[in-house]
Amino acid sequence: MVTTELVRAVTRKIKIDFFIVVIFILGENIKLIKKMIMKNIACLAVLLLSTVVAFSQSLHSRWDELTASEWPKALVLSDSTCILPFGILEKHGPQGPIGSDLIKVREFSAMATKKEYAVVFPDYYFGQIYEAKQQPGTFALPPRVVWDMLDATCDEIARNGFKKIIIVNGHGGNPNLITYFAQTRLEKRRPYALYFFQPSMDSSFRKKMLAERKSDISYDQHGGESETSMLLYLKPDVVKMDSAQNESGKPLKRLHIQNAYTPIWWYADYPNHYAGEGSMATKEYGKLLVDQYVETLARTIKAIKADKETLALQEEFYNRMLK
User: Fold this and answer.
1) For the domain that residue 209 is a member of, what is the CATH number?
2) What are phi and psi of 62, to 5 degrees?
3) What CA–CA distances, in Å, run from 13 to 1, 9, 19, 247?
């Protein structure tokens, strides 16, 4: 007679034997199983990354092109990072458009965020440009307005959920304003960290760049070969190359004061608000410069998105500030 106890005993024996067989099989094939697991994990990671990249590419990066319903997704994909493209409205030699600096930072930001997603604020042109008020097309607001606009803009960007703001500047007259503005972010507690993108070039690229250019680099500062070449690559229809030699972009060197700064120095050298030789510009040289800039910007965006230290250190500083 088969008792309940006998059935249970046989069942236990079967389970134990099965477990032993499983352990044996695993022991014999552990390396193969590990390899299969790692392969599946790698495939899953690639699939996940591909999904994120595809999704970010389908999401507009420009603030003004996003819908309100897409906003939460944009904040997540950007890691709450927003780019402020900072240009100016001013003359760029006889051949360049008034908005050259805006065109550059707009395109740089658009191209870089295709490589590394971030939200891009609409074109911003309220900066320092008093040295060009003698030229048509210059848009120069009063100093107090310039400061308050930048301050309020960053506050509003932060109020919309962004914790990291990257200023991408295209105008040579803005850096002193931007660096001082950035330093004043420590004057009182702010809900965001401000980063000022300042690209550099390594010796290898510099050597390649010097081999490609044609004009004297010492005064290629504004509307010259470099800037005009970038515009020929980015937006050739707005560059009037047949006018590039209508004015001189060479420095006049009318001031000879050493060891002192005076704000009229730029006008003293470049009364035409043109520094360089735009007639030497080429689309190919422009592509070389733009590609390097965009690649550097994309890497910097990625690094800033991953940065956990700046906000933490900033908060530590705020907490230790003497009241």
Assistant:
1) 3.40.50.10310
2) -70, 130
3) 19, 6, 10, 99
